[in-house]
Please model this.
Amino acid sequence: MTVERVSAEGASIPTGTEDLEASEVLRVAVGALGADRLAIASSFGPEDIVLIDLLAGIVPKPRVFTLDTGRLPQETYDLMDGVRRRFGIEIEVFFPDAARVETMVRTKGLNLFYASVENRRECCHVRKVEPLGRALATLDGWVTGLRREQSPTRAAVPKLEEDPARPGVWKVAPLADWSGDAVWSWIRERDLPYNALHDRGYPSIGCAPCTRAVEPGEDERAGRWWWESEGDRECGIHFDPRSGRMVRTRVPAAVAGPFDERSSDGAA
Ligand code: SF4
Model:
């Protein structure tokens, strides 16, 4: 493995990590950044549960943060408490800025996301992207459960990179080359907790009003923002590295804030 300096202010990013196992990738990140400056960004999908299990085998108290949009299913909250109990960890919960949510729903309605893609992106920005920025301000690296086979927008996700939207911050995807079957095998073999909605036809779970069950044979993310026909139907906290461009969408001026012009899948 070699190390290269990727930015003046950034950490040194190792190269040659693509052939490493998931735990080895995590060890590289922990070793370089320290356990206090690296955290799993968890929406408590099955990949996140595997990551928490793996990192808990490396450090006694892995940092885990989540974005509580205020619109999550009860089953997700139940799982959060299950994870706290199972691993004996604290979960760092980041909420949206209350004033921005109040302004948004007062002017556009509680269910604004159904009205237009622009509205949906605004809601995701206020409830997810901006809080993510605050979470990442406490970190030098974040670990995600992205897998290449999840969707076309994720097919080129590297296991370790400098976050293109956040210079100097490592973005780590140890499960990038895992299959869905491998994730679920790990969960079953380890008897790990998972979201009860998965047993009701929900392979990918986000906010309650924006997630539905999928039919057999449908893409696993087909139940996310299913009413939209344009864009990549992602929430904006990741970008599409295969597009060859940084997918950044300027959010509407009404919601502009300190973390604006973050990556947005929706513009891909
Ligand atoms: Fe809003 Fe839906 Fe995005 Fe959640 S997934 S932040 S409810 S638009």
